[in-house]
Specification:
Nucleotidyltransferase, domain 5; about 30% strand; six-stranded mixed beta sheet; alpha/beta
Amino acid sequence: MSDLIIYTDGAALGNPGPGGYGAVLIYGKHRKEISEGFVLTTNNRMELLAVIVALRQINKPEIPVSIYTDSKYVCDAISKNWLGNWVKKGFKNVKNVDLWLEYLKVSKPLNIKFNWVKGHAGVPENERCDFLATQAAKNRAVNRDYEYEKIAQF
């Protein structure tokens, strides 16, 4: 059984500002691209949301998943078990708690391996995700990131 390969990226123009995410899912000969834009959000929120939305697409939890991201924030939080420590401490002083809780929920039944890739280094699928995320932020930023807007200071 081959792995489901997922590439993800997030973007925010202004950070905070209009944002978007992009993801490319590849399984054998099958390929799916997803992206979405938001009116006001942050880069880290979009990086994490890209992973969450991609994982929501999985309907066969027994398939191993390899996620490739250029986000040290997301990759290190999981690979270095920062997330586990945040959970133990009740997410005290942690940003994006709503999304981390959603990640824990959607990732629970899955066998996931995270891989960090250098951004803007010519990795084709990472470049595609960057394009999808940026275009979503620029041209389709219509959704609202209500959780972020609750805490945003204007």
